[in-house]
Amino acid sequence: MDLPTKRRALLKIIVLGDSGVGKTTLMNQYVYKKFSQQYKATIGADFVTKELQIDDKLVTLQIWDTAGQERFQSLGVAFYRGADCCVLVYDVNIHKSFETLRNWHEEFIKQADPADPDAFPFVLLGNKIDIDGGNSRVVSEKKARDWCASNGNIPYFETSAKEDYNVDDAFLCIAKTALASE
Ligand code: GTP
Ligand code: MG
């Protein structure tokens, strides 16, 4: 059945972050409920779609997974344009992946060039909280939340793509955040 257009929304979500933090794995867990231990670098960018109902709207998330490795990045400005939300991902066990969030954030704003950069919706995910029962984490939840607070109150989720922890909640927030800004 065709829904009236005002009850449908297609939302473009772009996922950014260092290589190996788990961008592809999070997406596969969310969309296919599958986890793979094996690392296979993403080359270029690819998207998957997922439909969900939010209030009276049928929302189609178009989730763009990107390459963290510089040599596999080949995204032009057009790729970023029209994004409704940018998801930043880091690994709570690797400090460098937290430090580079600033660069990913900056790069996104530069490329996407949104009308109001301060109001553009981001969501931050701190992934791999399962590793070593949390004993090997080097970025505290507080530190991450402070970063979010000082960057325009970015919503924050701690996730495990392996254990499927907080993945649905995070993407629901991502969808709602994107929808609100559409
Ligand atoms: P690029 O495509 O190079 O940018 O990397 P990526 O961010 O897509 O990382 P990817 O999803 O391929 O995950 C890298 C490795 O981390 C894989 O071996 C995954 O199995 C593993 N991994 C991802 N998420 C988790 C997690 O939550 N917990 C654990 N223990 N391992 C994870
Ligand atoms: Mg990947």
TrEMBL record:
Family matches, as PROSITE patterns: RAB, RAS, RHO
Entry-linked CDD domains: Rab7
Keywords: GTP-binding, Lipoprotein, Membrane, Methylation, Nucleotide-binding, Prenylation, Protein transport, Transport
Membrane topology reported for the UniProt record: Lipid-anchor
Top-level taxonomic group: Eukaryota
Protein family: Belongs to the small GTPase superfamily. Rab family.
Function: Protein transport. Probably involved in vesicular traffic.
Keyword Chaperone: no
One annotated GO molecular function: GTPase activity
GO terms under cellular component: plasma membrane; vacuolar membrane
Any one biological process term the GO annotation gives: protein transport
Cellular location(s): Cell membrane
UniProt entry tagged with the keyword Cytoplasm: no
Protein name, entry field: Ras-related protein Rab7
